[in-house]
Amino acid sequence: MSGEISPTGKRSGPGSSPELRASHADRDRVVDVLRIAAGDGLLTADELDERLEAALSARTLNELAALTTDLPPVGATGAEAKDVVRIEQVHSGAIERVGRWVLPRRLELAVTYCEVTLDFTDAVITHDTLRIDVGMTGKTLTLVTRPGIVVDTDGLQLAHSRVKYRQTPTNPDTPVTLRVELVGQKAHGRVVVRPPRRSFWQWLLRRPTALSARD
């Protein structure tokens, strides 16, 4: 079988250069492939941890390729990204996209008086930009981010609404892996952009540092 497996999980052509240095984006793509494979039962928890550690420390594309040679391409796992996803809901329960969900190229929100939460913490990033067309009235639109994800709200029109944008300090060298562009209109309610909430144990581990800083 000819050709190497690229960081995206697809086979590369004979003219590729596997000894090229791997970028942060290359590592992130392999991490997504590995997480999808584990979610589909193709890797055990121990295998996933081992390969994730190797992916994050890989220096070349060849090292990354070795981690996915026995895995099917991303599209074959059933997690192929859609071009457009539309969410349409009126006066009903909360709408949530959490865990390992595959991001489309464009997301349309046509929602009236329903809470909406889009959690990107473990989302599978398939494009460098996600456009969200917002047509939402009432309640709160919450976007949960992680380092490397930026949210642009400049194209969003607000009517009796406001935006609360909170991000944890990150290394300025952290590459941008996803740009989320909000466009359209949000009437009443709020738009909240925030990092994941710390668990009790994470809060407890940080507490001594905070106390010592005050001494």
Automatic annotation (TrEMBL):
InterPro entries assigned: DUF1707_SHOCT-like (IPR012551)
Region of interest: Disordered: 1-24
Pfam families xref list: DUF1707
Domain DUF1707: 20-72
Identification of the protein by name: DUF1707 domain-containing protein
Species classification: Bacteria, Bacillati, Actinomycetota, Actinomycetes, Kitasatosporales
